[in-house]
Amino acid sequence: MTNLFRVTLLWTITSLFFCRVYGQFLVTYMEPDWLPALPYWFSGYLEYQYLLGAQILILMLMAVINVDYFRKAGYFYIQSNKKRVWLKRFCGVYLTVMTLRLILHFTLFTEQVWYINIIPISFHWLLAGYLWLLSVDLEKLQK
């Protein structure tokens, strides 16, 4: 994997996350028929205005991180192996928790349609993948 390929993947995930945030915004305020209803977009653990604010901050952070990774320099560019290992472990925990959340949803809420929480959970998986990409040491990978 080259750095350009990684940066392309980072921007692709950022774009997909933007589409998710924008789609949820459209559903919340315009209710288009061609998008799933609001319950499919978020779990309701946070009120929407707080969730939207957090998502906008995440998108801004992702953009800064993507630029740092393109330049191979900057505050968010990880060069430390300890930070890479920590981030990989965090990704594993994050992915595991989101998988358990899905399993629990299927187990506890059997009366609901199976795909009711698929959008938020799948985007959590995507964000875990984003973090994993940040943790990859390309020099070690290419050897």
List the helices and strands and how they pair.
Layout: H1 3-29, H2 48-71, H3 81-108, H4 118-135, H5 138-142
Provide tags for this entry.
143 residues; 0% strand; mainly alpha
Write a structural description.
With 143 residues, the protein is an all-alpha fold. The chain has one domain (3-142). The chain is 71% helix and 0% strand. It is built from five helices and no strands. The chain has helices at residues 3-29, 48-71, 81-108, 118-135, 138-142. Helix 3 (81-108) runs antiparallel to helix 4 (118-135). The relative contact order is 0.16. The mean pLDDT is 89.
Order of helices and strands: HHHHH
Relative strand content? under 5%
Largest sheet: none
Number of folding domains? 1
Helix content: over 70%
Give the CA-based shape. Answer: globular
On the 0 to 100 scale, the average pLDDT is: 89
N-to-C CA distance: 11 Å
Number-wise, the strands total 0
Low-confidence parts, pLDDT < 50 over ≥5 residues? none
- What is the helix tally? 5
Which structural category fits the helices and strands? mainly alpha
Instruction: Tell me the Rg in angstroms.
Output: 17 Å
